[in-house]
Structure formats: structure tokens, C-alpha cells
Specification:
alpha/beta; signal; five-stranded mixed beta sheet; 20 strands; isomerase; endoplasmic reticulum; repeat; disulfide bond; 39% helix
Length: 515
Amino acid sequence: MPKPTLYFSLTLLLLLSFNLLTQCSELDDEFDELLALDRELERETEANGVKSSEAEVLTKAQRIVHELNNDNTERIVNGYDLVLVLGYAPWCSTSAELMPHFAEAANSLKELGSSLVLAKLDADRYPKSASFLGIKGFPTLLLFVNGTSRPYSGGFTSDDIVIWARKRTGTPVIRIGTEKAAEEFLKKHHTFLIGRFDKFEGPEYDEFVSAAKSDNETQFVEVSKVELARVLYPDIKPTDNFLGIVKSEPERYTAYDGAFTSDKIIEFLGYNKFPLVTKMTEMNSVRVYSSPIKHQVFVFANIDDFKNLLDPLQEVARTFKSKIMFVYVDINDENLAKPFLTMFGLEDSTNTVVAAFDKGMTSKFLLESKPTRSNIEEFCNNLVQGSLSTYFKSQPASVKVVVGKTFDDEILNSEKDVILEVFTPWCFNCEDTSKQVEKLAKHYKGSSNLVFSRIDASVNEHSKLQVNDFPTLLLYKANDKTTPIKLPTKASLKELAASINKHTKVKNEVAKDEL
């Protein structure tokens, strides 16, 4: 499924009548009463030692989030100053992944007293309303300010939505004045930028606030007392004004030592807001792609292999901090891993793959040795120095390409057993068969008397090759080239190998491996 695209609608709507505004006000009162009931229930639940489940979060959000339809969409979008709309489709897996985050954000914003109203629309069920709002894909987030759309440019976790919403509705920076407030802030925020100023005024402070408004993803917090700042940033430097980023990982604290200008602060965030190794998900993929760091190293591995590799990988990442962004992708996640692995011809790989890209992914590089710490470090060092050779995908050499003019030499006159794959580009099942042939060629690479070949029947002809069904697998035995044996194309790899072993003498020459 393609990655989600956010469409930002520009909608000019008529002002509501006094009656409609009154109805919306009454709805607000009703939601406040329901929220009070939720708080009471939550206190009772916590008193009994039971933690709210995701189902309870969603149930609570159902009372807060407006459910849009063809009858109420225009009234709600026009009836509130600020409305954040989620357009979704029940069958969309990315919508399903985003929905709990949207619900949790709705609960948090209501608790914080935000004036932002959240609403959702089943765009598949209500296409008329979807068209009115400008929803063209799923999921879609749109922000309406007094009925006019503004771009939504935040992230897609609940924290991301809350941070972006607060910044866009008048609270770009959270001010902390007590130790208790600082401790409560630490419980809720894992990544943030702290600014300490003697007074919340002046050119440097104005640049800090300007950066907070420009940034879409990181929570900014400000304090004045040094002892209070140390609750949030223990290693704070004793300077007049101080900036530092805090993250929940081994590389927890990073101080800012640049000029107090909005552009430089934003640049500092871009290079330092990610962890040493970022796990890519559908929700954060856009942030990863937009990183300003020039080089990116991707590690594709299953969860267990990655756990064993994480510590040495973090040590390497620390060495190349701000120079290389390190990204982990679960190799079993086809939506995320396969598009990258296909670029290297490794889409069927189950072993750990380490690859790299430059900014814009115009050049790609592959670590072709074992992914040890020393090999990864050397690979990264050569990447930064620009001495790595660009990787170009190539068809496996173990499968020879035959054309009409070489058919006699490569097939009929060969003294070896030859397995020929006959395919066409428009054949629906040929790709799967081609992958099987490549795996078989790799399995039998130790054989000196068996050759794997393929021919594109759409552009190549030969009088001795009369094939009408595609794909077709033919075994030309060394001692009989006139009557090739037709092998099954719908068989498993083990079944094909058994057929090959039955008709040839290669069984004892092949190294044992798993097909």
C-alpha cells in the first residue's frame, strides 16, 4: 500500500447563523459534562489499581471526537474556530494505525483545555462530505481555522498531534515555574528542547519563540531559574542563556553552542532530534525522509538480529553523529523494507542487510561483507569520505541470458545439462518462477555440469523452441537435446530440486542448504 499523503484543503465557507452557533455551543457543554464523567471514572479506575486500556481510550475519545456525515460536516467545520479533521477509510490499514493515535491526542488536548475540536469522517461511506472537505486519499488530516483550511504539517503519533496542535493554537512554548511542574513534564515528554533565560524577553528569546513556532515536531519548554532547569537538564551550562535538547536514549543530552537565531536553532534540531538509531515506521517515515542529514545508513534485520546488533551500531552512530542518520527497518515489514531492498535486488533476503544512501537517494551503496561493528564503521567512514563505489543492481550471473542467435551454442550444443526458463514480460506468473530459478541456481552453484538459463520469448525465436505457455521450465539433458523434459512451474523449490536430482547427476555435487 502506498505511503499516506496528506492533502490540505483550502475551503471558503459562509458564516453560520446565530442558531447554528448556539447548537455548537450546546454541543461543547455536553462534551464537557461527558468529560467530567470520564475523569470521575478514570479516578475510580486508578484508585482500584487498573490502568486504562486502548479500548477505554477509544471509548472516551468517541465522546470527544465529532463523527462527521453528510448532514453535519459543513455545520461543524464552520461552527468552531479550530477543527482538525481526520478523513479515513475502514479498509485502509494506515488509517487503522493512525486512529488510536488520533483518539489519544483528542483525550490529551481536551485534558489540557485546548480549544481545538477534533472530528473524523468515514470518507468511503460519505463521499459527498469527503469531496466538500477535499479528501482525496487515506488517511487525510486537515486543519480548519474559522472555516478556512491551513496546512497540517505535524507527525502522526498522539504526541506529535498534540505538540503540533498546541503550537498552532497559541502555545508554541510551555513555561515551567515549579519543580513539581518540571517533574510532571518529564513524565509526559521524552524529547524536548529546553531554553533557559533570565527574562522571557529580548532578541535571543524572541528568536527562540520564533523557532518554536516554525518547528512542527519538537516540544519547546522555557525556564528562568538554573536550579529548575537542572531538573530537566542536569548538565546545564552556567551561561546567561542556554539551549539544549533532551532525548530518551543513551545520548540523552546535547547542548546548543550556536548563535541564537531561529534558522540556526531549527538546523540544530534537524541534526539532533532523532535517536542514535531510528526505527522506521509508517508513522515516522516522512520525518525520516525529510532529515537534513546528508547520508543515511539503513539496517534491515529481523527483530532478534537487530537486538544483538543494536549496541555496536549505537557506538558507530555516536562516532558519526550529525554526519550520518542510522535507520533500522524490520526486514519482515514488506511495506517498508521491500521497496528499499528491491533497489538492491535483495527483496527476498532474510539475512541482515546494511545499505546507505546520499541525500535525495540519488546514489546507493551496499555493505557486501559481514555486518560486524568494524565492517560497518569502515563502511560509514568511506561513505562520509566519498570513497564508496555506487552499487548497481545486476541480474545474478548464475542465470545466463540466452537470445535467439545464441540458442544453438548455449543450449543445443552445450555439453552440460541446461535448465531453460522461458518467459515474457507480460506474463503474470513469470516473476515468481524467475525468483525460483535464481534460488535454484544459487543452490546448485557448486555443480560443474548444470547450467541455468532464461530466454525472453517475446523478442527471441528459434525453430527448436516451440513454447506457447508461460512461464515454462525445460531441462535439456547433456546426452539428449532433442526432447527436453518439462519441469513443473507451480511446484515448490524442494519439489523442483527433487526433479532436477532425478534427471541429472548433480545431487552429490551440491552443498547442503535450505531451500
